[in-house]
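Quick one: C-alpha cells for this chain, please?
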Amino acid sequence: MKMLIVVGARPNFMKAAPLLTAIEKHNERAASPFRAENGTAIETIEKVLVHTGQHYDEALSKAFFADLDLPEPDIHLGVGSGSHAVQTAEIMTRFEAVLLEHLPDVVAVLGDVNSTLGCALVAAKVSLDSTGKRPLIAHVEAGLRSFDSTMPEEINRILVDHVSDLLFVTEESGIRNLRKEGVPAEKIHFVGNGMIDSLLAFQDKAELSAILEKLDLRVPSLKQSAKNGVRRYALLTLHRPANVDNREAFLNILEGLQELASSCPVIFSAHPRTCKNIVRFGLGHFFKTENGTHSGNGIRMIESLGYLDFLCLMKHAALVVTDSGGIQEETTCLGIPCVTVRENTERPVTVTQGTNMIAGTTKQSVQNAVKLQMNRKINARRPEKWDGKAGGRTVEAIVAEFQERKRLPLGERSLARPRLKENRKKLLAVASGGGHWVELLRLGRAWIDFETVFVTVNPAYGADVPGRKFYSICDATRETRIRLARATLKLLWIICTERPDVIISTGAAPGYIALRIGKLIGAKTVWLDSIANAEELSLSGAMAGRYADLWLTQWAHLAGENGPYFRGAVL
C-alpha cells in the first residue's frame, strides 16, 4: 500500500510526525513472522512525504523537521506564499502531477490549511486508471467547527471533510458535528490527537532547550523563590488575519494585555506577517525588541521559534495568550492556563475539560480573561484518547479500510463496512423562559446525537425546536405555591412517561424540580446556572448542587473546589 502524506505549514508537521512513527512500527510488524489476527499477512506501507512549501520560511521549516526527527520530504512542491486562491490553485496544479506519477492508494491530509484543501480536492477528482480509480482520502483532525464562516480554515475543514473517505477526529465534538452534517457514522473514527502525540513524545527533549537561559527567564538565584529557577512570565502568539491585519482589532488586544505586561514579561513569538503589520500600523511602542538585554517586564518580541524551544517556553509559562488552535490543545495537555483572543473555538474540549478560556478581542474582555486565568486554580483533565497513541490508531484504521476495499469488487467498495447501529439515548432539556431558554438552546450542539425532549414554560417556544418533542408547563416560583405544585405534578408525569437518560437545565425552579425527580428514576443530571447570576448562584442553582451529577456556573469566580465547576460560558 502506497500512502502520500501531505504537509505544508507548521501545524501539519506536528501531526505528521506520529503518523510516520506509527508507519515505521507497522512495517516492523509486517516484516516479522507474525500475522494479523485473521491469519493474513500484514500490509506493508510505502510512505511518500510531500511538502507543498506553503510555509515559505525555509529555515524555520527545516528547524521543525529537525526538532521532530522528521525525514527530508520525498517531494517538495515549492509553492510559497500568495493569496488563498493563488496558493491553493498552485498546490492543486503541482499535486496533480505527483498523484499521476506515484499512483498512491491513500492520500492523508492533515488539519485545515490551504495545502489540506488543495490536495484533498485533487485526490477526490483524479482518475488514476481506466476504471476511474482514485486514492482513499484520509483527513486527520476532522470534524472541528468554529461555526465562523469568515475563517478561511473553517471553509477548508468543511470542504475537506465532505470529500474524504476516512475522518479521524480528535474530540467528541467532531463526531457530533460530522453526524449533524450527514456524514455516515462508518467514515468517522475517534482516534485522539496527533498534536498531543508529538507533545508527549518530545516534552522531555524540550527541557534540554536553552531558550529560558537565552531570554534570562531561568536564573539560578531564583531557585528558592521560583519553580526550577524560572521567572514568572506569560507567552503570547498572534497570527490570525482577523486579529493582526486590522489595526483596531490588533490595538484592542495589545491594550488589553498592558496590565499583564506591567506585572511580568510577556514573551511574544512573532509571526513574520504580524511583524510587518506592527510596523505598518505604528504599534511598535507596545513592544520591547530583544537586542542583547532581556531584563524587565513588558511585551518582549522575539523571532519565531522552532518546536522544541517553543514547547519549553509554553511548558514553563504562567499563562499563554494565543489565537492558535493547536496551542489551545497543547496548553490543555500541559495544564497551563490559556486565554484565546477569539470569539469562538473549534476545539471546545479545551474549554469544557481543559485550561482554555475564550476571551473575545475587546480590550476589557481580554483584560478580564487574563485576570481570571492568572488567578485560576487549575482543575482540568486531559481529554479522552489524548494519550500519545493517536498515530497508531490512525494508521491501523487506514490499513483496515484499504484491505477491506481491496477485497471487494469495485462497485461494492462504498459498502465496505456496515453502518453502525444507532442506539440513541434520551435527554430531557428543561428551562424557564427568557434567558434561561436562550441559553438552553445554545447548548443544542452538545446533544445532537441524543433523542431530545424539551420542557419550558411558554407554549410559543415550541417553534424554536421544530420536529422535536415539546412540552409546556406553567411557570412557577416558590412564592406561587399552587402553580409550583401543578408544575411539579406535570414534570413528574413527563419524566415518568419519557424516562430520560439525562436531564439538563439552565434554570430556574422547573429545572430544579426536574433534577430532583430525575435522580429518583436514576437519570444523570446536569445543572448550568444562568449567566445572569454573576454575583452569586441563583437560589435554585445553589440548591441544585445536591442533585446534579454535573454542577456548573458560567462565572469562574463562583466556582468552588467541590462545585459548582466552571467550564466556560454559552453566551
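DSSP finds 21 helices and 21 strands in the chain.
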